[in-house]
């Protein structure tokens, strides 16, 4: 009986280590991606202070990081918070897009500037060969073109 109990205890302790990362919880108030997507910078800051990983990609097909989601949505305050917690501005999604490419394509100059100032590389190429500059040239927004060229984008 004692041996059976010990075996069950070992199994329970082993399985106990297989938990879902907190960033992927189903509770909306505790889900980092949900809070980023709705632009709640205060909740994002609180979750990051509790140890959530700012670079953990979504568990979806695109594999976007929280910084990519915030950049794509134009949530400049959330971008600022994520960068303060050392989110990687050069991380790539499944298809090689970066937060900078997403902000440029969606025409968010404040976010583009924040990312460039944080060290985002304007010359990284996606799997399709696109850069942040080629993304914005598709939408012809001069302000972002100027910001990218100022930082040496080609």
UniProtKB/TrEMBL annotation:
Pfam families: Ank_2. Keywords: ANK repeat, Repeat. InterPro entries: Ankyrin_rpt (IPR002110), Ankyrin_rpt-contain_sf (IPR036770), Dendritic_Spine_Reg/Scaffold (IPR050889). ANK repeats lie at residues 62-94, 95-127. This is Ankyrin repeat domain-containing protein. The lineage of its organism: Bacteria, Pseudomonadati, Spirochaetota, Spirochaetia, Leptospirales.
């Amino acid at each position: 009986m004692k041996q059976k109990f010990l075996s069950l205890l070992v199994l329970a302790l082993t399985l106990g280590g297989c938990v879902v990362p907190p960033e992927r919880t189903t509770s909306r108030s505790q889900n980092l991606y949900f809070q980023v997507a709705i632009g709640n910078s205060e909740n994002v800051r609180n979750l990051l202070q509790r140890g959530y990983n700012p670079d953990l990609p979504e568990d979806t097909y695109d594999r976007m990081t929280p910084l990519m989601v915030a950049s794509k949505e134009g949530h400049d305050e959330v971008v600022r918070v994520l960068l303060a917690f050392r989110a990687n501005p050069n991380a790539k999604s499944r298809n090689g897009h970066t937060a900078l490419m997403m902000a440029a394509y969606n025409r968010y100059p404040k976010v583009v500037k924040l990312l460039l100032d944080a060290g985002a590389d304007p010359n990284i190429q996606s799997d399709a060969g696109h850069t942040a500059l080629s993304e914005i040239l598709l939408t012809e927004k001069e302000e972002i073109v100027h910001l990218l060229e100022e930082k040496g984008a080609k």
